[in-house]
Amino acid sequence: MAYAAPVKAKYWDDEEVNTAQRIKLLLANQADHQENTPVKRDEFVSLMISALELAGQTMAPVKNSPFTDVAGDEMFKDSIDKAVASGFISGYPDGSFQPNKPISKEEMAIIVSRVLKLKDTEALFEDISKSSKYAGEVGAAVKDGIIQGESGKIYGRGRAVNEIEASVIALRIYKKQPFNIMDATINEIQAAMETGKITSKQLVQMYLDRIQAYDHQGPKLNAILTINPHVLDEAGQFDAERKQTKSRGPLYGIPIILKDNYNTKEMPTTGGTAALKGFTPADDAFAVKKLRDAGAIILGKANLHELALSGTTISSLGGQTLNPYDLTKTPGGSSGGTADSVTANFAVAGTGSDTVNSVRSPASADNLVGIRPTKGLVSIDGIVPVSFTQDEAGPIARTVEDAAIMLDAMRGFDPNDSYTALSLGHIPVKLTSSLDKNGLKGKRIGILQNFFGNQPVHDEVNLVTNEAIKEMEGLGATLVPITVPNLDTDQVVKDYDVQKYEIKTVLNQYFSKYGTPVKSLEELLAIGQIDPSIANTLKTAQSIDSPLEQPDYKARLAKMENLKKQMLQVLNDNHLDALLYPHQKRLVVDTGGASQADRNGILASVTGFPAITFQGGFSTPTDTAPIGVPVGIELLGKPFSEPALIQMAYGFEKGTDHRRMPLSTPALK
Fold it and tell me: Is 92 helix (H, G, I), strand (E, B) or coil?
């Protein structure tokens, strides 16, 4: 039986302990560790798996645990199953693993040696018999330097590993893993920078190299409009500051991409329209200030559907952006350039704006996570506007956690956006506190039948969505079919959308406030440089006199209020945590064709309710889409239910893992 005892000769220093704590290589539910508290076998295995996953390794679990005493309610079952699949652990002759037994120092050496794939070496300790089955692995771990004996002659056989020791060993294993930029998360990158694997400046250069290789060469995604000319210098400043301070947030030194309708003081803000080429505002948008305050580095700005007015991401300034999963298709829109940048690993995360679908459509089309928050959670001040009623801003990221981190940074009260006053007191200090791998357990979700297509063109999306529903049920959620009378997305767009009534007013106000070279919508149309895809929309808007006084406009606002009440009643009467539907009923359209049809995002935009879109799966592969085209699932909830939506999406993500990188933008050699 292993015993807990003080280590006679510590083979680590305080800085290692502090670093392990900073990068969260800790036992579950503990903020710090004790030297004399033994670590159980399951806890140690979980730490090893955490170290490898923090380094970006994908660990798949075995489908059926070989151990008789590792049941579904075992706290660390997932880690144990992953360790079994990787060959790191084995059980006892009776078929048990004994997860609650303290792990001995020699058992630790066995696991460490297997994790690092060390070659057996003779163990030169008096308490380790040369004939013992673990002698070679103990010798290998000691020779590698990751573990030491209690003294020159005594290894410490039978001594239980303590909490501090386990965290230090996990840190050392982590540090031996190479840094991999591909799909690296915010926390993975922070850990790499904390441990000196990489600097912010090196990271930025890696992303610049990928942009150089894939945006205007290779697949020519055409996602980026502008690179921050000072980005390498800014990253270097963050690196210098990192050496001086230990208190930092998760976005510190993290490169992100902005949609090019967010005002930036050092780069042009164009909305993708050629008439605004070169226009640089005097100050940042409020959300950009918040991101900078959180430590984010603005790497550059992305193409969008011109003035954020449609869903295929084409502009007079930037041209057509391509979908990296199928270069014959669009990336959705209007925030398609941001989505491409994130999915192709040109940056860690990015921002979008959403008047109808524009954060979530490209998230769906590019196998990402996009959040349209409750109206007023994020300020839209300093973002080229379309509609003060429907506009909202939100994050686009590769994981739910990264999206939550971004949204945490972006949100907040802004006196220049009165809607943000509505959010005060509604959201917890950190949305990331909602992350729970069991986030779907006990949840009741309504399947919004109205938002599914019933034609052959809808079959691929329906297949993926229905499979996702089954997966959610397997993860503990109850899903019930819901039909809302007279609710049809096309009809909502036709009868509720107010863009054509508000865009002239808000654009003219923006042009006046920020001193753009174009002074009015009328002048913009007269210049004649806009993309044809938005010409009719703008001409219609310009033709309406006193648009905010039009009876139809006021009637639409009244309909919105009634729809809000109706949807709240649906959620309440059916005791639902959220409504589920595919973000769009059909796959994204080909480039050069019609605008995207059958999108469902209008419900969130006209009610102001929050919605999160996340990876649901892929369509059937084709010659142009070798792994298929992504399909996004959307959850919509009550106002300020972002914590619950994030929790459910995170639970689905952790239980399924439908994220896949596009084959058109592989790792650089």
Answer: coil
**For residue 29, what pLDDT band results from cuts at 50, 70 and 90?**
very low
Which residues, in sequence order, are CB contacts of 195 under 8 Å at separation 6+? 19, 23, 171, 174, 175
3-state secondary structure of 534: helix
Phi then psi dihedrals of residue 451, to 5 deg: -100, 20
Asked whether the beta carbons of 42 and 100 are under 8 A apart, the reply is yes
Out of 79, 315, 316, 358, the active site residue is: 358
Q: Are 41 and 99 in contact (CB under 8 A)?
A: yes
Kindly report the length of the chain: 669
Global pTM? 0.95
Catalytic entry in 77, 105, 259, 289? 259
Can you state the angle between helices 163-175 and 14-22, rounded to 10 degrees? 80
**Residue 540 CB coordination number (10 Å):** 14
334 is catalytic: yes
| CA within 13 Å, CB half, 219 | 23
Q: Give the number of C-alpha atoms closer than 13 A to the C-alpha of residue 26, restricted to the C-beta side.
A: 14
Phi, psi of 159 (to 5 degrees): -75, 135
Ramachandran sector of residue 313 (left: φ over 0; alpha: ψ -120 to 50; beta: rest):
left
Q: Which residue has the tokens 């973000």?
A: 583
Select from 241, 244, 172, 138 the least CA-distant residue to 13. Answer: 172
Distance between CA atoms of 186 and 386, rounded to whole angstroms?
Answer: 31
Which single residue is written with the structure tokens 């959180």?
Answer: 294
| Integer Cα distance of 21 and 640 in angstroms | 32
Mean pLDDT of 535-547: 98
Percent with pLDDT over 70 in the chain: 97
pLDDT digits (tens, 9 = 90+) for 421-431: 999 988 877 99
CA angle 108–163–139, rounded 5-degree value: 25
Task: Please report which confidence band the pLDDT of residue 160 belongs to, taking 50, 70 and 90 as the band edges.
Answer: very high
259 is catalytic: yes
- In the chain, the N- to C-terminal Cα span, in Å, equals 49
Distances (CA, A) of 471 to 63, 110, 318, 441, 483: 15, 36, 39, 12, 21
DSSP state of 595: P
* 186-194 vs 41-54: helix crossing angle, rounded to 10: 90
From 147, 119, 145, 121, select the one nearest 135 (Cα to Cα). Answer: 121
Which residues face 300 on adjacent strands? 227, 257
> Residue 485: what are its φ and ψ, rounded to 5°?
-55, 135
Mind listing the pLDDT tens digit for each residue in 595-650? 889 999 999 999 999 999 999 999 999 999 999 999 999 999 999 999 999 999 99
**Residue 34: pLDDT over 90:** no
Angle at 404 between CA 58 and CA 57, to 5 degrees: 10
Please identify which of the residues 104, 315, 316, 334 carries the catalytic annotation. 334
- Identify whether 151 is a catalytic site residue: no
Give the tens place of pLDDT for each residue, 162-176. 999 999 999 999 999
pLDDT of residue 71: 84
User: Considering just the CA atoms, what is the radius of gyration of the chain in Å?
Assistant: 27
Please state, in angstroms and rounded to a whole number, the distance separating the CA atoms of residues 454 and 667. 39
